[in-house]
Amino acid sequence: MTDNRDGAVVRLSHGRKAFGDTEVLRDISLEVNSGDVLAVIGPSGGGKSTLLRCLTLLEHLDDGSLAYGDLEVARGEGGRAVYARAPELKAARERFGLVFQNFNLFPHRTVLQNVADAPQVVKGAPRGEAEARARELLAQMDLAGKEDLVPCELSGGQQQRVAIARALAMDPQVLYFDEPTSALDPELTQGVLRAIRELAARHMTMAIVTHEMAFARDVADRVVFMDGGRVVEEGPAEQVIDHPAEERTREFLASY
Ligand code: ADP
Ligand code: MG
């Protein structure tokens, strides 16, 4: 077996998170290797969004270790997670992007500005360069010609593709998606799934929380099934989805 450790873009070990008395993540470990697509599936309330929020530093773990490549973000020590200092956290934030269920675009900025703003503000990219790259990414997302519209003039599927272009504009090493199509009609869903498939074909490293099982099986290299704040089962996509080993996974998949 090859040792993939050097290829891990992100690694979480023994992650724990509680809100008050509610334990939401209970000893979660996972890693995403460079060029891999990981799908995270599981019932509502199982902790999937909290997992992504901890991986993207929107929430802090209570315990466990988190690293982006060689960059240590948090270290489990004496039963709690000790976080790195602000400069390291800022560096870590530049390594990932996050696409939300509800797009979260800036409503009063144009499509082009939504994509081109952050590279200028956060990375000091020259405006011309940021806009040229934004146009390229929008074309890649099948949105050429929409640059000057504002988000409310687009369909939900188009807005979500703008959100993906915006995340890509920061050149992340890994892109996270939290149920990117669950706010969309079936026909709009397909355009967004197609865009994500194309990114997978270009070997973009991604971790995707999704309820689209056929999509997960096709696109993901590995699937994690989460329930009750735990990883119940993990493995190659066809194995977990077509031949789950755990009764709980079978039960969950039977509802699709
Ligand atoms: P999923 O995304 O799998 O549906 P979540 O991570 O959203 O699951 O939620 C897991 C559990 O954590 C749920 O019981 C939810 O109510 C609880 N939870 C999530 N966020 C918070 C919060 N900020 N405060 C309190 N409880 C929360
Ligand atoms: Mg969720």
From TrEMBL:
**Annotated keywords:** Amino-acid transport, ATP-binding, Cell membrane, Membrane, Nucleotide-binding, Transport
Can you cite an annotated GO cellular component? Answer: plasma membrane
Listed PROSITE patterns? ABC_TRANSPORTER_1, ABC_TRANSPORTER_2
Q: Name one Pfam family in it.
A: ABC_tran
- GO MF assignments: ABC-type amino acid transporter activity; ATP binding; ATP hydrolysis activity; GTP binding
Q: Where is the signal peptide?
A: none
| Keyword field contains Membrane | yes
Where is this gene product found? Cell membrane
Boundaries of every ABC transporter domain copy: 10-253
- List, alphabetically, the InterPro entries matched: AAA+_ATPase, ABC_ATPase_HisP-typ, ABC_transporter-like_ATP-bd, ABC_transporter-like_CS, GTP-bd, MetN_ABC_transporter-like, P-loop_NTPase
Determine if Repeat is one of this entry's keywords.
no
Q: Where are the transmembrane segments?
A: none
Topology in the lipid bilayer is annotated as: Peripheral membrane protein
Main localization is membrane
Family from the record: Belongs to the ABC transporter superfamily.
The protein in question is named L-cystine ABC transporter ATP-binding protein YecC
- The species is Granulimonas faecalis
